[in-house]
């Protein structure tokens, strides 16, 4: 009987082969299988849930962190490279369009400017990554030489690869085993891929043809006056019949995949996505009013005393009625003061006393008579003044020596003024400038020297002719006593009374309290909503029933000083015209290296449509700044919202039966518009004067609109750009309207359409500020090697419109679908 051992011994070779094969399976095949199973599930749990979807690619929290870290490193290295290049007297070229994390600060009086690193946010990193994916989708490639050329230009040719490697080590501190120069090179290649695509989309609008340059200059600089009356398509609806089935089908097939856009006069039958919103609103004014009631009078008084300097009354320059007569009164006074410092005797002081008495008689004398007596008495008294410098003071002797070159001009009045002013180089000048207005002319007129000469008579013997100029030289000495006894003291500081500023103080004290209370209230509401939303989300249900009790949320909001509201189900164009869209807006700021500081108007309704956030997810608006790749503003908004979607309906291409009535209405509107255009053009051809226009308007029972001194564009405040000009009484004003009006010559007529092309204005140009010939001459004179600024501005404005249209068609914001609020990522990082 064969034993098991005998069987093994007889088949040992085969068994050894089988055992070896099993070992190979255990050590080679099983690990990947296990890793794909249990270990992959464990890794999935570590990664967490999907944060955002970009073009069907799901990104998790670690993926977002990697993107942020990658762009942060590139931004820090390039900022440091540009900074070192400037230190080495290089001429670095700033990246344009800018890259994430790098901002070039322009030089100003407060700052020398230069590169600055700005931390990259999660939303900005994902947006830039979407540009990278789009560039790769289009097949764009950045080779090694392009990357090296970018590094050379950014450093002004001053840094080598070794220098960049040293900067990378300094910036990262050697973090990460694989973070070396080669890895940084590839990160920079990815950044440049998106930058090159942006450079193609954001073109330079300043390159214009001669013809477009003239049109731009004319539209920017022409001012006209016109009279017009409307011809509406509504008046021709009765003349339009019904379309045939073929016409209906033709119009439907042409626009069935295009949504209707009333703002752009765009026909369309595509049904757009629709959403409805609910929101809780916090207004700082409500909280300020509540906080002001809690501020006590003692707190107001304490703040007033601690910050009293901020409530000073403004000091206005004095305007006394005696100011014009004061120069005559001060003519003799400084002269008598001259004798006092020269003699330093009692008689001199006695003469100084009557100074106040003599001011009034002196002010009564006519300046003309004094001017006549100037020449002779001045010379006599100069001779009498000779003894003073000889006998009295050595400084008095030095002064005549200094004034010798001024002997000739001393005979003229300006010379006396100049000598007295030029000699005041000590502290005397500062005090004299602080005197009343009546004292300033004392240094300007020579009659002030007469008493000085009289006071000098009894003192000293006559000296050489040279000291004849001493009175002129001693004019500053005559004002020296004025420094010892200033005529006018600084007025006492006056403060606004507490009763006048107490409301202002209450506002100041209540503002931080109100801001904190509003932030806490919104945070509490958002916390309640977020908790209920997380419960709803983790149930993984397909239910579209709201997890919130609307009445409960409204009661909570009211108790916290907030308000509750809702927006019904609408598509984007209808929602953009709603009251909520006009109210829930926020002005954000960004810095462009070519245009400087620019404003960005954000809309809560627009962001609700664009982000494609899931149902019932609470979001904060305005929240963090959306400024891309530039600086952010940390000032909290005065009005904030917590909003969430309550219903969503996807858009679809309808069937003809679903929208047949809309198609018929659109066809009739088109045909009526054509008839209105033909009628308006015929009237414009017949009108040769204002009388003709008024007659035609009377026949059509239309009101004439008179518009004077209108311009094509209006300049926005702060140099933020241009806005289309306005014409009171014209509805639906558009660029087509302005183009028709401003291309019409003086005493010419035209038919200008409105935005919807359903009203045509028959207009007659009655006046213009400058003719076309004058405008052309001005344009040619303004061209100094480059086009005028107005032309470049107009071209940039038009280019912005084109770029915006390209972006909407080329880069759909819906490509980025956030599953959570990106603000939560930034706040928790």
Automatic annotation (TrEMBL):
Start-end of Basic and acidic residues biased regions: 333-356, 363-414, 437-449
* Sequence ranges of Low complexity compositional bias: 317-332, 466-488
Location(s) in or outside the cell: Cell membrane
Species assigned in the record = Blastopirellula marina
Q: Give the keywords, sorted.
A: Cell membrane, Chaperone, Membrane, Transmembrane, Transmembrane helix
Q: Return the annotated region ranges for Disordered.
A: 314-488
Q: Which GO terms describe its cellular component?
A: plasma membrane
Q: Where are the transmembrane segments?
A: 14-34
Under the heading SUPFAM superfamilies, the entry gives: Triger factor/SurA peptide-binding domain-like (SSF109998)
Name of the molecule in the record = PpiC domain-containing protein
């Amino acid at each position: 009987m064969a034993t098991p051992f005998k069987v093994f011994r007889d088949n040992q070779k085969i068994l050894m082969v089988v055992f070896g094969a099993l070992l190979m399976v255990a050590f080679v095949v099983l690990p990947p299988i296990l890793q794909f199973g249990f270990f992959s599930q464990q890794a999935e749990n570590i990664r967490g849930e999907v944060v955002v979807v970009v073009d069907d690619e799901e990104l998790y929290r670690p993926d977002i962190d990697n993107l942020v870290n990658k762009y942060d490193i590139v931004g820090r290295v390039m900022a440091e490279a540009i900074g070192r290049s400037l230190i080495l007297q290089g001429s670095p070229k700033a990246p344009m369009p800018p890259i994430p994390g790098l901002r070039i600060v322009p030089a100003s009086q407060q700052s020398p400017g230069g590169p600055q690193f700005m931390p990259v946010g999660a939303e900005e990193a994902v947006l830039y990554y979407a540009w990278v994916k789009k560039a790769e989708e289009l097949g764009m490639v950045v080779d090694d030489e392009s990357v090296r050329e970018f590094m050379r230009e950014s450093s002004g040719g001053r840094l080598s690869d070794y220098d960049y490697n040293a900067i990378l080590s300094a910036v990262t501190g050697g973090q990460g085993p694989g973070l070396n120069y080669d890895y940084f090179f590839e990160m920079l290649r990815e950044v440049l891929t998106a930058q090159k695509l942006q450079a193609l989309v954001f073109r330079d609008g300043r390159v214009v043809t001669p013809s477009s340059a003239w049109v731009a200059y004319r539209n920017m600089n022409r001012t006209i006056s016109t009279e017009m009356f409307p011809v509406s398509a509504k008046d021709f609806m009765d003349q339009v019949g019904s379309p045939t089935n073929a016409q209906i089908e033709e119009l439907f097939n042409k626009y069935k995949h295009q949504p209707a856009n009333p703002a752009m006069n765009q026909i369309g039958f595509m049904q757009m996505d629709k959403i409805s919103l609910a929101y809780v609103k916090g207004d700082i004014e409500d909280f300020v009013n509540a906080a002001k009631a809690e501020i006590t009078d003692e707190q107001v008084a304490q703040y007033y005393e601690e910050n009293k300097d901020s409530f000073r009354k403004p000091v206005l320059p004095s305007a006394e009625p005696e100011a014009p007569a004061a120069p005559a009164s001060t003519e003799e006074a400084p002269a008598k003061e001259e004798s006092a410092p020269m003699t330093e005797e009692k008689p001199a002081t006695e003469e100084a006393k009557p100074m106040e008495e003599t001011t009034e008689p002196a002010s009564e004398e006519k300046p003309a008579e004094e001017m006549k007596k100037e020449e002779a008495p001045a010379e006599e008294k100069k001779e009498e003044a000779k003894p003073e410098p000889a006998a009295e003071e050595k400084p008095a002797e030095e002064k005549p020596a200094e004034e010798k070159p001024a002997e000739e001009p001393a005979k003229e009045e300006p010379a006396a003024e100049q000598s007295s002013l030029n000699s005041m180089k000590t502290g005397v000048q500062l005090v004299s400038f602080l005197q009343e207005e009546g004292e300033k002319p004392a240094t300007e007129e020579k009659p002030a020297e007469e008493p000085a000469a009289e006071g000098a008579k009894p003192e000293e013997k006559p000296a050489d002719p040279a000291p004849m100029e001493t009175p002129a030289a001693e004019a500053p000495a005559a004002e020296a006593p004025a420094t010892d006894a200033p005529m006018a003291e600084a007025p006492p500081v006056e403060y606004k009374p507490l009763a006048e500023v107490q409301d202002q103080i209450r506002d100041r004290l209540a503002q931080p309290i109100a801001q904190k209370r509003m932030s806490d209230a919104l945070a509490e509401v958002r916390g309640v909503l977020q908790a209920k939303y997380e419960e709803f989300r983790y149930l993984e249900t397909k239910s579209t029933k709201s997890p919130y009790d609307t009445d409960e949320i409204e009661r909570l909001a009211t108790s916290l000083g907030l308000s509750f509201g809702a927006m019904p189900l609408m598509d984007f164009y209808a929602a953009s015209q709603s009251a909520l869209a006009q109210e829930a807006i926020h002005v954000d700021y960004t810095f462009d290296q070519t245009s400087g500081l620019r404003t960005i108007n954000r809309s809560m309704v627009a962001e609700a449509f664009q982000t494609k956030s899931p149902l019932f997810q609470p979001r904060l608006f305005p929240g963090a700044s959306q400024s891309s790749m530039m600086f952010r503003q940390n000032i909290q908004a005065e009005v904030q919202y917590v909003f969430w979607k309550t219903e969503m309906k996807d858009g679809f291409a309808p069937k003809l039966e679903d929208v047949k009535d809309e198609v018929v209405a659109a066809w009739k509107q088109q045909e009526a518009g054509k008839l209105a255009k033909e009628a308006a053009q015929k009237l414009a051809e017949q009108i040769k004067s204002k009388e003709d226009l008024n007659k035609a308007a009377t026949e059509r029972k239309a009101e004439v609109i008179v518009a004077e001194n209108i311009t094509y564009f209006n300049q926005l405040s702060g140099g933020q750009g241009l806005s289309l000009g306005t014409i009171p009484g014209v509805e639906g004003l558009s660029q087509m309207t302005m183009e028709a009006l401003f291309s019409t010559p003086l005493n010419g007529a035209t038919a200008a359409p409105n935005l919807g092309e359903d009203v045509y204005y028959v207009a007659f140009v009655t006046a213009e500020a400058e003719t076309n010939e004058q405008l052309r001459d001005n344009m040619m004179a303004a061209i100094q090697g480059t086009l005028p600024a107005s032309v470049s501005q107009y071209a940039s404005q038009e280019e912005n419109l084109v770029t915006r249209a390209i972006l909407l068609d080329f880069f759909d914001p819906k490509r980025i679908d956030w599953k959570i609020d990106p603000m939560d990522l930034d706040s928790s990082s």
